[in-house]
UniProtKB/TrEMBL annotation:
This is Nicotinamidase-related amidase. Keywords: Hydrolase. SUPFAM superfamilies: Isochorismatase-like hydrolases. It comes from the Bacteria. Pfam families: Isochorismatase (PF00857). One of its GO terms (molecular function) is hydrolase activity. The keyword Hydrolase applies.
């Protein structure tokens, strides 16, 4: 697969862009996390932090998705999974390097899907982030699980969705699965695969307005 032909330059208007950060929590991206995603994590954190800093300079809204579980969830009571991401533990806390700042939005979810029984649709509408106007940059973990579900959620709601592959990590081979799936013709019209260095923002920067 020639990724040079797949990853596209993306020019975005800052006031018509939002970022969604999926599940960058201790459980997955802290070295002591139960499901730590391994050696690729530090570079993903670094790339994501740099992208978020740049987006903040351009006043781009940041939406964090926080995956949380409770002991009574069907995942445990019906399907017998071992407990993880339990509220009240360190697992579902967003890592310090990417911690939300004042003014950021946090969405709590209880499945892989950041839209299922969450406030995501309501929050997007309240913020004026609409399919007709906005591009959504999606980053986080796991690339082939919750990030993929998030991308599909925005895709089927007709948002233009931007997927910087260097700002995500998944299970072994996860990124390759995402690239293979999202580079197919079914997604071409509103999903763009890229890397963070290929994203250009246009608009008023914070320093220019201070």
């Amino acid at each position: 697969m020639n990724t040079n032909e797949i990853f596209q330059n993306v020019e975005l208007v800052s006031k018509k862009t939002a970022v969604v950060v999926v599940d960058m929590e201790n459980e997955f991206v802290h070295p002591e996390g139960k499901y730590y995603f391994g050696e690729a994590v530090p570079s993903v954190i670094q790339n994501t932090a740099a992208l978020l800093e740049r987006c903040r300079e351009y006043h781009v809204p940041i939406i964090y998705v926080r995956s949380v579980r409770y002991p009574e969830d069907p995942l445990f009571t019906r399907f017998g999974r071992e407990y993880y991401l339990l509220e009240g533990t360190s697992g579902p806390i967003i890592i310090d390097e990417l911690r939300p700042l004042e003014g950021d939005t946090i969405i709590e979810k209880h499945t892989h899907d950041c839209f299922h029984k969450t406030s995501m649709d309501e929050q997007l509408g309240r913020m004026g982030i609409l399919p007709e106007t906005h591009h959504i940059i999606v980053v986080g973990v796991a690339s082939n699980v919750c990030v993929y579900h998030a991308v599909l959620g925005f895709h089927v709601r007709h948002y233009f969705t931007v997927v910087p592959i260097d700002c995500m990590v998944g299970t072994p081979g996860g990124n390759d699965i995402v690239i293979s799936q999202l580079s197919s013709a079914a997604y071409h019209y509103n999903v763009t695969l890229t890397t963070s260095d290929l994203i250009t923002l246009q608009g008023a920067r914070m320093s220019a307005m201070s």
